[in-house]
Amino acid sequence: MDFLQIALIFLILLLSIFLAITGIQVFFILRDLKKALDKFNNILRTGENIAEDVERPVAAASNLATSAGAAAVSGAAKILGRLIKPKPKRFYKKVL
User: Fold this and answer.
1) pLDDT for position 55
2) Whole-angstrom Cα distance, residue 62 to residue 56?
3) DSSP assignments along 44-86, one per residue
4) How big is the CA angle at 20 (ends 19 and 24), to the nearest 5 degrees?
5) Which pLDDT score, from 0 to 100, does residue 18 have?
6) d(CA 35, CA 25)
7) Rounded to the nearest 5°, which phi and psi values hold at 83?
């Protein structure tokens, strides 16, 4: 065999080995990335559950305050209506 053929075979084998090693490393990197993304997803899911748990009492308090405010405005309107007596409206036209 010629020296050039031996060198080419050696280079092809060397490149094949490096590509195989690189492929294995990419596989491990992608596997670690998947594990990290799964952990991040669990953290986000936990945060979402905590936010929902906090949202329920806050929404209830907001509804309570809103309804209490509406009741107070309604009561104030009734009191003002009693204090300020409106003039009775006529149902007929005044004739000269």
Assistant:
1) 82
2) 10
3) HHHHHHHHHHHHHHHHHHHHHHHHHHHHHHHHHHHHHHHHSPP
4) 115
5) 97
6) 15
7) -70, -45
Distances in Å between the Cα of 60 and the Cα atoms of 17, 40, 67, 73, 91 are 65, 31, 11, 20, 47
Q: Any idea what the Cα angle at residue 52 is, between residues 47 and 58, rounded to 5°?
A: 125
* Residues 55, 49: Cα–Cα separation, whole Å: 10
Evaluate if pTM is beyond 0.70. Answer: no
Tokens encoding 14: 């060397």
10-residue stretch averages of pLDDT, the chain, 96 residues long: 93 97 97 97 92 82 70 71 69 66
The encoded tokens of residue 47 equal: 């945060």
